[in-house]
Design goal:
The structure is a single chain. This protein has about 260 residues and is of the alpha/beta class. It has two domains: about 140 residues, 3-Layer(aba) Sandwich (Rossmann fold); about 110 residues, 2-Layer Sandwich (Dihydrodipicolinate Reductase, domain 2), CATH 3.30.360.10. About 30% of the residues lie in helices and about 30% in strands. Helix 1 crosses helix 7 and helix 5 packs parallel to helix 6. It is elongated and about 60 Å long. The model has no long low-confidence stretch (mean pLDDT about 95).
Length: about 260
């Protein structure tokens, strides 16, 4: 069987470098190019030391010959990837967050009309996906839910896309919203955090963190805590590799790694 040919968008960034390294060392996969809007070079050496790949500023110039394009940049980058890759017959694996419902609808249309695959997931760490699954199962037994997420200081959105997905999983599992008592006197505005259907969400940003999510359910006389930590960006790579492989055997839009994991 021929190797899966992969292009990495945002290849010069931290996540792009992790993806390139993971693809380069995976049997049956071959990185053939990269793109990055900040590119000031036209070649980048492979992590294995076995040659180099071309780097383009425009994703449209990079997709030729690709089976799959992987993107972990931002919503704008993800949309550019889907617009360029799907008409070229390339599948997409998207880890960027901040996409709107309209963006998802367009992604579905692009995948269907071009008979290709687009996989979008808010988190590619399998442990985080399992956390959402466990949260959904547990939610119906509790009336109160507080969710804390902490990421590195450079993360631009709050709360994280994963936190929103976890909160939504809790609401779906319960079948209704949660109780979110308000402080009679909020001495510092925003101390109670934001809410999603009664799930209270707190966001932290600081160096030394990659991704931390902790859900605490509460009921009379007890709490249940479900927690997941990504210690480094390498934690996302098994899920990314799984999605790249799955993209070759599926068509249309897939939202969430849980579908690929069979949860």
């Amino acid at each position: 069987m021929a190797d899966i040919k992969v292009v990495v968008n945002g290849v010069l960034g931290k996540m792009g470098q992790e993806v390139l390294n993971a693809v380069d060392k995976t049997d049956g996969m071959k990185p053939i190019g990269g793109s990055d809007i900040a590119a000031n070079i036209d070649q980048i050496p492979l992590p294995s030391g076995e040659g180099s790949i071309p780097v383009f500023k425009d994703i449209k110039d990079a997709v030729k010959g690709a089976d799959v394009v992987v993107d972990f940049t931002n919503a704008s980058g993800a949309k550019s990837v889907m617009d360029a890759a799907a008409p070229a017959g390339s599948s997409c694996v998207i880890g960027s967050t901040g996409l709107s419902q309209e963006d998802f609808e367009k992604a579905r249309s692009l995948a269907d009309s071009n008979n290709t695959s687009i996989i979008i997931a808010p988190n590619f760490a399998m442990g985080a996906v399992l956390m959402s699954h466990l949260v959904k199962e547990a939610a119906r037994f509790f009336d109160y839910a507080d969710l804390t997420e902490v990421h590195h200081e450079a993360k631009i959105d709050a709360p994280s896309g994963t936190a929103i997905a976890i909160a939504q999983a809790a609401v779906e599992g319960k079948g209704s919203g949660f109780e979110a008592p308000l402080a009679e006197k909020e001495l510092i505005a925003g101390t109670r955090g934001g809410t999603h259907e009664g799930v209270v969400i707190h966001s932290g940003r600081m160096p030394g963190r990659v991704a931390h999510h902790e859900m605490v359910f509460g009921s009379l006389g007890q709490t249940l805590t479900i927690r997941h930590d990504s210690i480094n960006r390498e934690s996302f790579m098994p899920g990314v590799i799984m999605a790249i492989k799955a993209s070759g055997t599926s068509n249309g839009l897939t939202v969430g790694l849980d579908k690929i994991m069979g949860l």
